[in-house]
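User: My collaborator and I are trying to settle a disagreement about how two of our proteins should look. Neither of us wants to argue from intuition anymore, so we agreed to look at predicted structures for both before our next call. Could you fold the first one, then the second, and keep them clearly separated?

Assistant: That sounds like a sensible way to settle it. I'll keep them separate. The first protein:
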Amino acid sequence: MRTAEIVICGAGIIGLTLARELLRRGHSDILILDKEPEPGRHASGRNSGVLHAGIYYAPGSLRARSCLEGNRLMQEYCRERGLPLLNNGKVIVARDESELPGLRTLFDRASQNGADVELIDERQLAEIEPLAKTAGQALLSRLTSVVDPKAVLASLRKELEDSGKVAFLFMARFQEHPGPRVIETTAGRVGYGFFVNAAGAYADKVAHAFGLGLHYRLVPFKGVYRKLQGPRAEMVRGSIYPVPDARNPFLGVHFTRGVHGGVYLGPTAIPAFGRENYGILAGIDAEAPAILWRDAVLFLKNPKFRSVALEEPRKYFAHRFFEDARRLVRELEPADLAPTAKSGIRPQLIDLRSHELVMDFVLERDQESLHVLNSISPAFTSSLAFSATLADGLPA
């Protein structure tokens, strides 16, 4: 039986940064297991690379408390290791005057969180983002930056392996928790002193095997992207976001210039039929009926989810995606948008007691384990700061 002082289930950004923090605190026997052949195959390696800047999150929440410090630490990490980093900022625009109160609410929330933000007028917006348009005012976020997620993950893996104190066990899918301080995986039985569940889209299933988080379920939402091409792509300098619907944890289709020069639009938030349903049918498995049932219950009982379920699937169609994007900019033609294979899954936590979408990170624990549920955006941004919070909950 393979054993380790600390076993981390999940080699995404949370698992890797937690292992790094534990090394810093003196731990020397850490095993990271993952069902894939390498780290970050899912949400951690498929996100837009945006480092968020504390704008959207309720003051005092785990997401708010970790986002700005995580942004600073991740930028510092990229600079120290020569990883791609683009400090290009973000603007949030009002598509019509009805969104101005929401924009000002965002400004107030961001200010409470300590974010570096400013309300700007249309003339200032034109100087910062020539293609963007707004209804009177926009919100400027100076600290929003962009990284290459895969480069960050590769750097973290190398750092951990080079320490000689962290081992990886790939192609090892969690199966069950048959007794105290032992788990079964597809690569055999693993014993541990303490277990951390950082399994991302499968974190609820792992937690349930420990008898924890039983009133929570993860529901997948698919993020589809398109690429901006032609001369208008040169006009986008940073990121252009809409004012989000505060009732839901999704930020809406937006423009982002990446560290390698391309400008992507997305993601959508389409209810998916599988935790890895990246294509139309690819990734749909035996769990699909259960996911459809949960979606149906939410559709009936949660008006906020119902609005998402009715609107977002239409963005599979190019003309609907285009119409959504066009509201953020002065000019755009359908030919400016090119299809792309880029897609991702957001595993959104649902509280079965209230049928509500959970808006913050959730931690569940017992004497031998800690479970990270709902590691949604800004989890990548927050990770280096959030890992310290997680490490505080482990035995010294």
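The second protein, kept apart from the first:
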Amino acid sequence: MQKTYRNRTRDEVAERIECYMAEQALQPHAKLPSERKHCEDWELNRATLRSARRKLIEEGKLYSHEGSGTYVSPPKFNRNLQDLETLSEAARREGRNLETQVLYGEIIECTKQLSRKTKLRLGHKIFALQRLRVLDGVPAVLELTYLDAERCAGIEKKDYGESSLYDTLRQDDGVTLTCGRESVGLTYTTEQEGELLGIPE
């Protein structure tokens, strides 16, 4: 006997999935049942179920790994950039675990490109610091910071894996941020960046 599927909209099915997640008390990174099982249990058309799951993925409530399945996303991380809130401060406020891996920290000379960004002269000593920030065990941010090395003596000798960069600047060098500028854009990941962030090149 052929099963007759109920005529449900994408939004209705998305709501049903969210109810299921709440009823089962699914934690972040918990795996959802297969599409086949949900279609059979709920008498749904697979195309509608897939569309509903895509909707929840776009909203950041689910994520998927090709060939592995669909999983519950962790809560969105909120950071207040308007008040110059650091990543460390935001993580503490939200009760999230933040780990920092220092990839390199070295003194370099200011290039033409860096001179335009930093307003420092060519050849000026700059401290370049690259760090990988891992939020709740998931690689989240790849940071590259340039600082005036002549203004902050010995900056290259400090440990930025355990301490906050902004706290160190404020406590050791008397440097406090009072304003900032943010720009958002798209880019392609290199092989190294993809490996660090756990995403495709």
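Some points you might bring to the call about the second protein. The chain has a mean pLDDT of 86. The beta strands are 62-65, 69-72, 98-109, 125-135, 138-148.
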